[in-house]
Design brief:
Blueprint: E1 13-21, H1 25-36, E2 59-62, E3 74-77, H2 80-85, E4 97-99, E5 102-108, H3 119-130, E6 137-138, E7 141-143, E8 157-160, H4 161-175, E9 179-181, E10 186-192, E11 195-201, E12 204-206, E13 212-217, E14 221-229, H5 236-245, E15 256-265, E16 276-281, E17 289-295, E18 299-307, H6 317-325, H7 328-334, E19 338-348, E20 359-360, E21 363-365, H8 381-401, H9 407-419, H10 422-429, H11 441-453, H12 474-477, H13 484-497, H14 501-508, H15 524-532, E22 544-546, H16 549-554, H17 559-563, E23 569-570, E24 579-580, H18 590-593, E25 608-610
Parallel strand pairs: 1-2, 1-14, 2-9, 5-16, 14-21
Antiparallel strand pairs: 3-8, 4-8, 5-7, 6-7, 10-11, 11-14, 12-13, 15-18, 15-19, 16-17, 17-18, 20-21, 22-25, 23-24
Helix pairs in contact: 1-4, 1-8, 8-9
C-alpha cells in the first residue's frame, strides 16, 4: 500500500469545519439535525464557519459507495428517533416503506434431514411433530403464539434503507448547507499530537498493491475541526481510530454476523399484506436466523443472518439463503417470485460491549460502528439515527458557545446526551443477551429469553470467544460423517476445477441441489450480475489484503473464500493465499471476521485487512 504518511507525496489540502465519513442512518441523523440549526428563522447564520468567514459551517460527507443508497438493507424499525426528527412523515412518502401490520416468529423444522442439530433440539423437533395436531403447525413449521415484547415492532415501519437514505440525502442536499460526495472513499484519519485533524482520501491511479502508476492522483487531505466517524462496523477510518487510541477496558468486537438478503417481486398468488414481518429460526441451521418484510406493491425484502458464533467452517451463506427460501413454510409465498436485487452486509453484533471511545480530541463516533446496535431487540437503524441526531445537537451547542471540539467538550455535550437517552438504557439491558450462544443454540435461546423477560437482569453472562478461536477444522466438523481422506479428495477436486469446496461437501452429507429456475433461484454468479449489479472503478488498490500468506498456505478451511458474498475471494488453484477480484466485491466485510487465523500483531484480529475501497453494489433497493 502507498505510505499514507509519506512526506514526499505532494497532496492537495482543503479546510472545512466538519467532515463526516460514511453516509447511512447515523450520518443522516447527524446532518439533518445539524443543518436545521445552522441558519436562523430570518435566513442568517445561527453559527458561523471558522474557515470561511460570514458563511455557515462548511460540512462535507464522504461515502465509499457510488451512490448514497447503494448496498444497504431492508429493515423493520420502531423509528422512534426518525419520527422525532420527522414528526409529520408518512412512510408512504418513502418508496418501499409501510407501517408494520402483522408480526410473527416462526420456528422452522428441518424438512430434509440435513441440518446439524444438537440432541436436545432433535428431541424437541420430535415432540413438535408428534403434537402438531395441537400446535399452530403447518409446512414443517410452528408459528409462535405471540411475539416477545422485546422483539415487537408493531408501531414501527418496514422500509428499504437504500430508499430511505436517498430520501434523506435529497432533503439534505436541497438545503445547500451540506455536501455529500458518494464514490469517494476515505483511506485514513489525519492524527496530529493525539488529535484527529481530518481525513485523507484514497489514492487513485495505483496498482493492486497501491503503488503509483501513470495516472497517479494522491488522495486529498480534508482538514477539519471535527471528524465525524459514521463508516459502519468495518469502515477503515473507525478501525484505524481503534488501533490508534484503543478501546475502553473490557470492550471488544468479537460478535459479528453477515446478512445475506434479496429484494423480490412476490408472485400474484402471495397473500401476505404490506407491513407483514416474519422472523424465523431453526433452519437451514439452528443458529441461522431469517427475516421477511413485505413492502407495498407485492415487493418483499428477505434474507438470513449467519453469525460468528456459528461453530461451523461451512459458511456458504448464499446456498444457505436458497435452502431457507425453499423451506415449505416460506416457499408457498415465494414460489413464482422474481429477483429484483441482492446484497450482503456485515453486522456488528457486540452491541454495547463493542462500543469504542465515543469521542476524542477532534472526533466523534456515531452509528453501528460506535456500538449502537441493540442485540436483544435486533434493531440498529433507529439507534444509529438517534446517536447521529444527539451528536448534531451537541455540535450545535458547542458551536454556539464557541467551544472547541475537545474530548472534554464532546464528552459533556454528546456522550452525556447519549448516556441519558433510551439508546443507552436499552443497550445496557442487552449486554449479555447473546452470551448463551457461546455455549450452543439452546442455551442461547434461553439466555436471550431470560434477558428479554427480565430487562437484562438475568441471562448467561460470559466473555465471547474471538471468531478465529472457535472455527473447527473441516475434519473436526465432519467427524463421523466424512473421513479425512474423503474431505481431502473433494478439496483437491474443487481446487482443480475452481469450484467452492464447502458447497461440494454439503452435497456429500445430504443437502439437495438447488433447482435453479432462472427467476428467483439461480447461481451465485447470476445473482451477482443480475441482482447485485456490482461495479468497481479502476485505479484503486485492493482493499482486501491477506496479511500473512504463509498462514493462508497452512489453512485448510479458507472460510474467507466460502463466505465471500460476491465470490470475490476464491481459492488459488496453485495453493497459497486466496485470489481476490476487486470488481466482484460487494464490500460486505465478512472476510474480515471469517478467518481461521489470528493476526500476528494483534490476537483480537484475524489475518485479513479490510481497507478503503471504491465500488460495490449498485442497487438502492436492498
Amino acid at each position: 500500500m502507498t505510505d499514507m504518511n509519506a512526506e514526499h507525496i505532494d497532496r492537495q489540502q482543503m479546510d472545512v469545519d466538519i467532515v463526516c465519513v460514511g453516509f447511512g442512518p447515523a450520518a443522516g441523523g447527524f446532518l439533518t439535525t445539524l443543518s436545521r440549526g445552522m441558519m436562523d428563522e430570518s435566513g442568517n447564520c445561527a453559527v458561523e464557519s471558522r474557515v470561511m468567514q460570514g458563511m455557515p459551517p462548511q460540512v462535507l460527507c464522504y461515502e465509499r459507495a457510488d451512490d448514497i443508497g447503494f448496498g444497504v438493507s431492508g429493515v423493520v424499525t420502531r423509528a422512534r428517533g426518525i419520527r422525532e426528527s420527522f414528526p409529520d412523515l408518512n412512510p408512504s412518502d418513502i418508496p418501499m416503506a409501510a407501517p408494520v401490520s402483522k408480526e410473527k416468529v416462526v420456528y422452522l423444522l428441518d424438512p430434509i434431514g440435513a441440518s446439524r442439530r444438537p440432541a436436545a433440539l432433535r428431541v424437541a423437533d420430535k415432540a413438535v411433530r408428534a403434537l402438531k395436531w395441537a400446535l399452530p403447525y403447518r409446512d414443517h413449521a410452528v408459528e409462535l403464539p405471540y411475539t416477545p415484547p422485546f422483539l415487537r415492532k408493531h408501531d414501527g415501519w418496514v422500509m428499504s434503507i437504500g430508499q430511505f437514505n436517498q430520501w434523506v440525502g435529497s432533503q439534505l442536499m436541497g438545503t445547500g448547507l451540506v455536501q455529500i460526495w458518494p464514490g469517494t472513499p476515505a483511506a485514513a484519519p489525519l492524527v496530529e499530537d493525539g488529535a484527529v485533524a481530518g481525513v485523507r482520501l484514497a489514492d487513485q491511479g495505483v496498482d493492486k498493491e497501491g503503488r503509483p502508476e501513470g495516472g497517479f492522483m494522491p488522495g486529498m487531505d480534508i482538514r477539519a475541526a471535527l471528524t465525524v466517524i459514521a463508516d459502519g462496523p468495518v469502515g477503515p477510518i473507525g478501525r484505524q481510530i481503534d488501533e490508534q487510541f484503543g478501546v475502553p477496558e473490557g470492550h471488544h468486537q468479537r460478535d459479528w454476523a453477515v446478512g445475506m438478503k434479496m429484494v423480490v417481486d412476490l408472485p400474484e398468488s402471495c397473500t401476505l399484506e404490506p407491513g407483514t414481518v416474519l422472523h424465523t429460526l431453526g433452519f437451514p441451521e439452528p443458529e441461522i436466523f431469517g427475516f421477511l418484510y413485505v413492502y407495498p406493491d407485492r415487493i418483499a425484502s428477505l434474507g438470513i443472518f449467519v453469525p460468528s458464533w456459528f461453530d461451523n467452517p461451512v459458511r456458504t451463506s448464499y446456498r444457505y439463503l436458497q435452502h431457507w427460501m425453499m423451506h415449505p413454510y416460506l416457499w408457498r409465498h415465494l414460489e413464482g417470485g422474481t429477483l429484483r436485487s441482492w446484497g450482503a452486509k456485515t453486522l456488528q453484533e457486540a452491541g454495547k460491549r463493542g462500543e469504542p471511545h465515543l469521542a476524542g480530541n477532534g472526533y466523534a463516533r456515531i452509528g453501528e460502528g460506535s456500538g449502537s446496535t441493540n442485540v436483544l431487540t435486533n434493531s440498529g437503524v433507529d439507534e444509529a439515527w438517534t446517536t447521529g441526531a444527539q451528536l448534531g445537537e451537541a455540535v450545535l451547542e458547542l458551536l454556539k458557545e464557541g467551544k472547541p471540539f475537545t474530548k472534554e467538550n464532546l464528552d459533556a455535550a454528546y456522550v452525556q446526551r447519549r448516556r441519558d437517552s433510551w439508546v443507552e438504557k436499552e443497550a445496557r439491558m442487552a449486554v449479555h443477551a447473546r452470551d448463551g450462544f457461546q455455549k450452543g443454540f439452546m442455551r442461547g435461546m434461553i439466555g436471550t429469553a431470560l434477558a428479554g423477560m427480565t430487562r437484562g437482569k438475568l441471562g448467561f453472562a460470559c466473555t465471547p470467544a474471538r471468531p478465529h478461536d472457535r472455527v473447527p477444522t473441516l475434519e473436526e466438523y465432519y467427524k463421523g460423517r466424512l473421513s479425512s481422506e474423503e474431505i481431502e479428495a473433494v478439496r483437491q477436486e474443487c481446487r482443480t476445477k475452481g469450484q467452492p469446496l464447502h458447497s461440494a461437501l454439503m452435497d456429500r452429507v445430504g443437502w439437495p441441489a438447488i433447482p435453479y429456475d432462472g427467476s428467483l433461484l439461480m447461481s451465485h454468479q447470476d445473482a451477482l450480475l443480475r441482482g447485485g449489479k456490482v461495479q468497481a472503478p479502476g485505479g484503486y488498490a485492493d482493499h482486501v489484503v491477506f496479511l500473512y500468506p504463509h498462514l493462508c498456505e497452512e489453512c485448510g478451511t479458507q472460510i474467507c473464500a466460502e463466505i465471500c458474498s460476491g465470490q470475490a475471494i476464491t481459492p488459488n488453484p496453485e495453493g497459497g493465499k486466496p485470489l481476490f477480484d476487486r470488481e466482484k466485491c460487494v464490500h460486505c466485510g465478512a472476510c474480515l471476521w471469517n478467518c481461521a487465523s489470528a493476526s500476528e500483531d494483534d490476537p483480537e484480529q484475524g489475518a485479513i485487512a479490510f481497507r478503503a475501497g471504491a465500488g460495490g453494489l449498485h442497487s438502492a433497493e436492498n
